[in-house]
Amino acid sequence: MSIESPLVRSRGLVKRYGDRVAVAGIDLDVARGEAVGILGPNGAGKSSTMRMIGCVTDVTEGELSVLGLDPRRDGPAIRERLGVCPQEDSLDMDLSARDNLVTYARYFGYPRSVARERADAQLEFMQLADRADSRMDQLSGGMRRRLAIARALVNDPELLMLDEPTSGLDPQARHLLWERLFRLRRRGVTLLLTTHYLDEAEQLCDRVVVIDEGRIVAEGPPAALVAEHAPREVVELRFDSDDLDAHADKLDQVGHRIEVLPDRILLYVDDGDAAVPAVYARGVSPTGVLVRRASLEDVFLKLTGRTLVEA
């Protein structure tokens, strides 16, 4: 029995812009039907990696195969089989929701009648059928984001690439979009996405890849990464003062590790309820205390020393 080749396979993938190395040797596989999230701070190499996979920019060094084809030689053939939703929606503001999809579908050579059928099917799937005739200025940000994803689906892509799919959306719009993407996963659509929202990666992805300074520093299922890199619980401490280092100095050896952030101190511990009395016993009196389970954000802090979203 043969093993199916991955839809995306890279080995030693490198991207340089002049003297700057954006991607410094990435090995990545994305299997058919898998949802993979690429995480990293600004400038880590996420977008450059996605642009090479999407055949938008050339590979500097290394091997890259997308849908079994070589982007250096087969870029147009690959792009015909991809669905791409960039961070900026780039929808035509002068067209209706339906006409945005029909126009895009026509680029793939579909007759107008087929393009309209595909457009209407995706509008229905994205719960936008009642807004088919609406112009862009009549749609909310969440609606426009769903429309951008609907546009990326009109050619029935084998791989759907999403760059920050819910950036800037309110919580209700984010959760609605998550539900639609979850349904795509259930249909077997392969997803490759970047996100600044770690809860989004936990909700949508079978596997996450953490990139820092152009290299993969960890990858695996979200729960497995948390179990591998973080203790069971985290105690968050908040204070009125700005001198958090002075408080942190008193908390040495309370738990496995201390992380001092601009607005709070994190204690990584096995038992949060037992750690809180130890904090007060050290003469530290926070104005706010929260005990929670460890998350992907804690893994990211440990691996990169930075929060995912940086000013």
TrEMBL record:
<dbReference type="InterPro" id="IPR027417">
    <property type="entry name" value="P-loop_NTPase"/>
</dbReference>
<dbReference type="Pfam" id="PF00005">
    <property type="entry name" value="ABC_tran"/>
</dbReference>
<keyword id="KW-0046">Antibiotic resistance</keyword>
<keyword id="KW-0547">Nucleotide-binding</keyword>
<keyword id="KW-0067">ATP-binding</keyword>
<protein>
    <submittedName>
        <fullName>ABC transporter</fullName>
    </submittedName>
</protein>
<dbReference type="InterPro" id="IPR003439">
    <property type="entry name" value="ABC_transporter-like_ATP-bd"/>
</dbReference>
<comment type="similarity">
    <text>Belongs to the ABC transporter superfamily.</text>
</comment>
<dbReference type="InterPro" id="IPR050763">
    <property type="entry name" value="ABC_transporter_ATP-binding"/>
</dbReference>
<keyword id="KW-0813">Transport</keyword>
<dbReference type="InterPro" id="IPR003593">
    <property type="entry name" value="AAA+_ATPase"/>
</dbReference>
<feature type="domain" description="ABC transporter">
    <location>
        <begin position="8"/>
        <end position="238"/>
    </location>
</feature>
<dbReference type="InterPro" id="IPR017871">
    <property type="entry name" value="ABC_transporter-like_CS"/>
</dbReference>
